[in-house]
Each structure stands twice: as C-alpha cells, then as structure tokens.
Amino acid sequence: MQKFILSIDQGTTSTRCIIFDQSGSIIASDQKEHTQIYPQPGWVEHDPQEIWINTVQMINGAILKAGLNNKDISAIGITNQRETTVAWNRITGKVYGNAIVWQDTRTDRICNQLAETGGQDRFRASTGLPLATYFSGPKIKWMLDNIPGLRMDAEAGQAVFGNIDSWLIWNLTGGKQNGIHATDVSNASRTLLMNLGTLTWNHEICSMLEIPVQSLPQICPSSSHFGYCTELLEGVPITGVLGDQQAALFGQTCFNKGEAKNTYGTGCFMLMNTGTEPIQSKFGLLTTVGYKIGNEPAVYCLEGSIAITGALVQWLRDNLKLIETSDEIESLAATVEDNGGIYFVPAFSGLFAPYWRSDARGIIAGITRFVNRGHIARAVLESTAFQTREVFEAMEKDSDVNLTSLRVDGGMVKNSTLMQFQADILNVPVQKPLITETTALGAAYAAGLQVGYWQSLEELKSNWKIQKTWNPGMPDVKRNELYSFWKKAVGKSMDWID
Question: Do 270 and 302 meet the contact criterion of CB atoms below 8 Å apart?
C-alpha cells in the first residue's frame, strides 16, 4: 500500500498542510490565512489558538482532499515561522497572550541595554547572532517582565516558551495531557539562547536575560523522533522539524558546502551551506544551524535575513490600495520601462542583514512629478532584488565562495519580472525548481528520512529538477549605476529613530 508524508507549513501569514509522495510531488494541500495583529507601531502579534485551530482544519482538509486517513501517513514534518514566540501554561493549556512575531520591535530597549556591555555582538561567539529585536530570547524576557504572573508560573515549572514549532508539537502530542515540549536545533539556533557548538541552551545568557532554563523546550535533531500524535492523526509520528528557511534549504537539496538558496516570502532569506563548522560572519550575516540528521554532525549555514519583501507588496495592496491582489503588481510594474528614478527602502522594522539597524525606517527616495503608480510598483519589486544582492555580496565575502547561480523559491518566484531583474542585478543565473513548495518539502524530507521513507540525501537530490532559469542580460554600467543609487537610498533611511 502506498504511503505518504504530511507536512505542516506554519508561516507568517498562513498555515498550510501539504501531502507529498515518494517523488516529492504534491498529492493534496490546504491553506488558510490568520489574523495579523498590530496593537501599536512596531508591534506585530498572532493568536496562537487561531493558528492551532487553523492547523487542525488544514490537516483535516488536506487528508480529505487526498481521500486518505491516518494509516496512509508514514510521518509528519513541521516547518514554521521561526523567531515568533509563544508562552503557555502546560497544566491548563492556555496561552499567556498573543505570540510576539519575529518582525516585532518592542524589545529594542532590552537589546540596547544588553549591548551597553559588550556591544551588539556580545553573544555572537556563542550563538552566531547579533543582539536584535528579531530573535526569541529578548521576546521571552519582555513577556516575563510584562505579563502578570508569568514569571512566577515559569519558575514553578508551569509556564513554558517556544517558537510555533514547539506549540504545534505540544498540541499534536497531547497538549495538557502530557504533550511533548520540544524543538529542533534549527529553531533553537534562532533564539539567541543556544550555544552553536554544543547545541544546548546557554545557561549564562539565559541567566542574563532572567529566563528559567526549565521553561525552554528540549532541543532535538531536525530529523529525529519527536513523539506520536494523539487525537488528530493518532499514532502517526512527528519525525521532522525545521525552521522555515532551513527547511527551504533542505527542500532545495543544498546538501553540499557552498550551495545556496533564496526564499521570497513575507521577508527574504538567503542561506548558504557552510558544512559542519560554523563560520562567524564579519559582514553582517547570521551564523545558524542548517539541519541535523539523527546522530550525524550538525550542518551550519550563513544566513542573510531581509525583513520586508513580499510584505511590501501586501502593504501596497492593503494600506495604499494601489493594487487589489498581490499578483497585479507585475502587470502594473510592466506599464513602465524602469523605476523612473525612485528607490523604495522598506525598513518598516529597521534594516536586517547586512546592516542590523533598528533606527532605520522605510523611505521612497528620488520622487519627481514624472513618477506614477507603475514606477512605485517597479521600485517595490526592485527593492527585493537590491536587498538580495547586498546579502549575496556579504555571503561571498564571508565564505570565500563565488556563487555561480542562485536557487530560488517562495511565493514571489512566480513574478517573472522580479526574477529577471534579480538575475540582472546579481549577474548570475536564477534557478526555479519544478516543485516550488520547498519549505514544506524540506520538512517532509527530514521526516521521511527518519522513518526510512527516503533512504539517503542522494535519493532526495535526484528529485530536484529545474523548471525555469533566468539568465542575466543587463550591461555592467547599468547594473552598477542602479545599485549605486540603491546604496545611497539605504543610507538615507538610517538614523530616523533616536
């Protein structure tokens, strides 16, 4: 009897469930958006209960569409928005409020206070990360300092913390009825609390942030046995867990040192496999765990994280009403030949890689009377490609590897105008795989390897096939001129917040 792997992809804007077969092809999927909550400027929240309810609905929806039942599923993989942080009570099952999303900047003061001693790179040697509002650790400290009763419950062993992967694992494996509190190395490496070398919680940093270590999840390999589902998909094991960007790297089969991918979603995330030794970045990138397969050594990555890419298209749609659907941006951008001299720096939550400037804010530079809606649409798309080039260059400097191509995935890769401009501004071919749902696929691969559904990384590599390649065709003079203006615009976005 043919069996399948079920993958839960819990992202920033929606939850998806996708069922894959042995060739990595999609059998069925279901997807639902969840509410984006903005209580005040700089704050971004999600309702964890809504996410859990949606997850249950999407699992049932995908199973129903495929005409399957739990006996047809070999294993479950989970991939998730990474730094988004949840606090809940393991006795009652209730959350202590909304999840604080990775884009949220309320922990700016906490990060600045910690940086007063030792600077922004105070914890980089241990964690691979700078002090930034992006990561989970400062969010947990904010919760403990600001939510009444939470610290007392955490110290008593009742309140626990986790990224969304931990919240889903706990609920799927029984919740308040002995649910398992666990995470994988890739998610743990995004907390600012894990030691990159030992793959364990750093007790010294936890102590500085006044976070009880016992409230944090157990850290497991990405491909390992996390536990069995109870009521929903009863008896099916959860055997693969990866943060979304590491999952996309895995799904793109970037298993060799020097291979890189870029995911175009709410934000943009470029990861390069650097092998079994972590490389400390000198050019504003993050050092992170890519994945760990069972007892094998962990594989590390350099990562360039860009906060706002696809989210800028949503902002154009929802806040400015310039377009009615996100897909319309390509046809609007096609009404003009170029950007009309304008550059859009979307530093809505500050600038992430390679700058890490929380004082920056979004700007449109170079506006004249000539500029129209089409130019704004094109500048929005181009900002994604420009930000990617900045990360691309930093990655080459840190790794001493000249990237000869870039594997791409995510929702924005269907935008051919963007992908062609990306190839032009990078001056390397951009390759889109046949299966673009690489985030969900990566989690499925990790799960399937653990239960023998797939036998080896080589077998997974044989599944990867190119659907389309965009080759660069822009003259060097033009490329350099555009990039020079972009860098000037980025400089203008800084020092906005005192």
Answer: no
